[in-house]
Amino acid sequence: MKLEKLFRRAVEIGMKADVREKAYFDKYFKKQKEKKKKLDGWHKDIFDDERTWNPFPDCRIINGSGNEDIKTLMVGIDIETPEVLLADRLREKGQKIDALFIHHPEGRALADLEKVMPLQIDILALHGIPVNHSEADLKPRMDRIWRSIHADNLFRTERAAELLGIPAFCCHTITDNLVWEFIEKTICKKEHDDLSSIIDALMKIPEYAYYAKKGNPPIIVNGSGGNRPGKIVATEFTGGTNGPEEQLEAQSRAGVGTILSMHVTEKTLDAAKQHHVNMIQCSHMASDAIGINLLLDKLEKEEKKLKTIDVSGFVRIKRS
Ligand SMILES: [Fe+2]
Ligand SMILES: [Fe+2]
After folding, report:
1. Centre of ligand 1 from the C-alpha of residue 290, in Å
2. How far apart, in Å, do the first and last CA atoms of the chain sit?
3. What's the pTM value of the predicted model, to 2 decimals?
4. Residue 177 CA: which ligand is closest?
5. Which CATH number fits domain 184-283: 3.40.50.10490, 3.30.70.260, 3.40.50.720, 3.40.1390.30?
6. pLDDT digits (tens, 9 = 90+) for 248-257
C-alpha cells in the first residue's frame, strides 16, 4: 500500500473510533475550507491544508511524498533521532524498513498537539459533564501546552528522517481513540465488584500482561483493592495529553467513581484524593501499544503483507 493511502485509511479508522459523530467532522471540514477561502497574505500562506480532510492535528506524514510503497514499518511509541539512526543502521544491515510509524507526535504533529485537546470535552460530556464547564476548565491548560511546546526544538526527528531518506508519519489521537474505545467496551461497561477485579480484567489483556511481566503492571494510585468502583470511565486515554485537574472535581460531581488513566499527574492525583475518585494508572506504554495494535490489525486486512519492526516501547500483538 502507498504511504498516502495507508495514512488516509488510518485517519478514517481514527474518526470511526472517535466519540464525535460523522456530522461533527463534516462540519469541521466545511468550516476549514470556508476559513481558507477568506484568508489572505501570510495567513493564507501558513494555512494547513491537511485540516480540510484530517481532523487530527497530531497525526500526519512528517517525511515522504506519500507515494512510497509500504510493507515493513518500524513502529515505536517515541521515535526520535536515535531511533531514526537505528532504522538507518538496520537498513544498512539488510533489514527492510519502508517507513517509521511514530506514536507520540513529532514535527508539525507535535507543534499542533494542543489543537486535539477539545476532544476531551466530548469524552467528558459522554459521562454527564456540561460542555461549558469542561471548555472553561480546558482553555487555560491548552494555552499552557501551546506555550510550552512552542518553545521546543520541534523538527529534529523529521530532519533526521529527511537526511537519511526514511519516510515517517505520526498517528497519535487516531490510535488513542482506538484504545479508548476498546477500554470503554472491555472494561468500563462490565460489572466489577472492586478495584482488584478491574486490575484482574486488565491483566487479561495481553499488552498489560506483557508489560506486567517486565515490572510495569496496571496499578491503583488512589483507592484500595477492596474499594467499590462505582461508575468506571476511561476519560484519560485520548485527547492529546492530560486534562486539567479541575476536570477531576467535575467528574466526581457528575457521579464518576473510578477513572482509568494511561498516566496521572500529581495535581490530578491530589484532586482525586480530595474528591474521593478512585484512580487506576494502566501502563502508559502498554496502553499506547494496544491502540497501535488495533490500528495495525485493521490496516493488515488491506495490506496483507504488512510487517513491523517493534522498537521504543511497542510490542506487536495481533487480535483476530
Ligand atoms: Fe497515546
Ligand atoms: Fe502516550
Report:
1. 9
2. 21
3. 0.97
4. 1
5. 3.40.1390.30
6. 999 999 999 9
